[in-house]
From TrEMBL:
It comes from the Eukaryota. It is found in: Cell membrane. GO terms for cellular component: plasma membrane. Gustatory receptor which mediates acceptance or avoidance behavior, depending on its substrates. It comes from Zophobas morio. It is a multi-pass membrane protein. The keyword Membrane applies. Coiled coil: none annotated. This is Gustatory receptor. The keyword RNA-binding does not apply.
Length: 379
């Protein structure tokens, strides 16, 4: 087994970069140096970390509101923007902390799908190039975060006042305010890319079955259908703890983008000076908005891939029918959609008081199985 075959090694950038309050325990693999368990678990002791971060953010919000009336027009705009960001990160931490159980279930599901890829009929989900991309993105985010932290600390150190404790608390809260959105955006992008790889592997395996005409075709289709179902169910679990976060993220980034442009117009229109901190805040807000747009585009691509695969799995058996049977299937589905059917003991379909034309048992079987599959997937 190579590191690329190991689910923990492949997912480690996502696991270790986002474990600020959840203990992602080590897994049993030949690359691990420590004994481990087979499942992720929540470490309640680490809940002290997000709670402390929340207290620091509350202090920073209170401090900004307390000094708001003493600031000039430009400083008020910057302080208002900073307060919006602090409130957003505070809610973000609270959402992620309260949904830690769903997060652990979701990552356990990812590990299970990755480890059971051979059972689902596909051998490659995360290749070498994909794993390298994850590590490169992880390193880029880490260096970007570290650079912002150092720059902001140096700028804040230059403005050190007489109250050292208050200055330290404010710096720590702003450091948290910078780090958390970067971590969340990275987590969104990495997870969505991972699901795209899952769906792409499923689609590639379906195409391979069609072109090479392998043995046990129906059995392999069944396994791939099961994989698709597991991926989408796990994706819905992710939605339980990320959908609300994504909504708050989007609304906050839009507010920040609009307010940042307004600040720039006011500053240049009234010939104010723009210091480094204010300029950096505007740039960071714009970059976060671009990251939010990228997340929305990736979600749209993922939904399209899911619809394409579902359409294939739902419609494919129709290609096994004759032209006449396929036409009957389309007519029957359309008719059943319009009006509720009644199946009588004489094996005759009636819709209302009208008698349908003669329908073969193959067509009826296909329609019933297809509708059953569609209902189970929807649940």
């Amino acid at each position: 087994m190579s590191p690329n075959d190991c689910a923990v090694c492949a997912l480690s950038p996502i696991l270790f970069f986002t474990c600020n309050f959840i203990n992602f325990s080590q897994f049993s693999c030949p690359h691990s140096k420590y004994p481990s368990t087979e499942h992720l678990r929540i470490n309640k002791n680490k809940l002290v970390v997000p709670l402390t971060e929340c207290l620091l953010l509350v202090f920073a919000i209170y401090n900004n509101l307390q000094h708001f009336s003493s600031y000039q027009h430009k400083e008020r705009l910057i302080t208002l923007n900073e307060t919006v960001m602090l409130v957003f990160v505070l809610f973000l931490l609270l959402f992620l902390t309260t949904s830690s159980r769903e997060s652990v279930l979701h990552f356990n599901g990812l590990i299970s799908i990755k480890n059971n890829r051979y059972y689902y009929g596909t051998a490659a989900i995360l290749g070498t190039k994909t794993v390298k991309k994850y590590f490169k993105t992880y390193l880029l985010c880490a260096f970007y975060n570290a650079g912002l932290q150092v720059i902001f600390f140096l700028v804040s150190f230059a403005s050190l006042g007489t109250n050292t404790i208050e200055w330290i608390l404010k710096v720590l809260s702003c450091e948290i305010c910078i780090s958390i959105p970067i971590i969340v955006v990275f987590k969104f992008i990495a997870l969505l890319k991972l699901y795209k790889n899952f769906l792409r592997a499923n689609n590639d395996s379906l195409i391979k079955l069609l072109t090479k005409k392998e043995k046990c075709f129906s059995y392999r289709i069944k396994l791939l259908r099961r994989m698709y179902h597991c991926v989408m169910v796990n994706f819905n679990v992710m939605g339980l703890y990320l959908n609300l976060t994504l909504l708050v993220l989007g609304l906050t980034l839009v507010v920040l983008l609009v307010s940042c442009f307004y600040i720039l117009i006011v500053i240049y229109g009234r010939d104010y000076g723009l210091d480094f901190y204010e300029g950096a805040f505007v740039v960071i807000s714009v970059l976060q908005f671009i990251g939010g747009l990228f997340v929305c585009v990736t979600v749209a691509e993922l939904e399209k891939m899911s619809e394409d695969i579902l359409s294939f799995l739902f419609k494919y058996p129709i290609s096994k029918l004759t032209a006449a049977e396929a036409a009957q299937v389309e007519v029957l589905i359309t008719t059943l959609t319009i009006q509720k059917p009644v199946l009588r003991a004489s094996d005759i379909f009636t819709v209302g008081t009208r008698l349908l034309a003669s329908i073969s048992g193959t067509v009826v079987t296909y329609v019933l199985v297809a509708l059953q599959f569609h209902a189970s997937w929807a649940n």
